[in-house]
């Protein structure tokens, strides 16, 4: 579980190219109160990189990394 303190999360798949790569987030934008817990689910497929990065966006538009994951972890 991830702790969420701002307006929401989006997932960002960092790739050099996008041909054949896709990511699907099952939830839309999520807003939570501070210190609330959230489980985010997604599926992704890539031919380039197994790394997936979770980015948090606050209401002011600032971005900060939450965690990164690698296929199989």
UniProtKB/TrEMBL annotation:
Keyword set for this entry? Adaptive immunity, Immunity, Immunoglobulin domain, Signal
Say if the entry is tagged with keyword Metal-binding: no
- What's an example Gene Ontology biological process for this entry? adaptive immune response
Coiled-coil stretches, from where to where?
Answer: none
Signal peptide interval = 1-20
Highest taxon above the source species: Eukaryota
SUPFAM superfamilies given in the database record: Immunoglobulin (SSF48726)
PANTHER family found in the cross-reference section: T CELL RECEPTOR ALPHA VARIABLE 18, T-CELL RECEPTOR ALPHA CHAIN V REGION
Q: What is this protein called?
A: Immunoglobulin V-set domain-containing protein
Q: Which species is this UniProt entry from?
A: Rousettus aegyptiacus
């Amino acid at each position: 579980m991830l702790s969420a303190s701002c307006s929401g999360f989006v997932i960002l798949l960092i790739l050099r190219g996008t041909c054949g790569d896709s990511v699907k987030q099952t939830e839309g934008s999520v807003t939570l109160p501070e210190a609330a817990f959230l489980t985010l689910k997604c599926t992704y497929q890539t031919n380039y990189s197994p790394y997936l990065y979770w980015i948090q966006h606050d209401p002011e538009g600032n971005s900060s990394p939450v965690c990164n994951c690698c296929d199989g972890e």
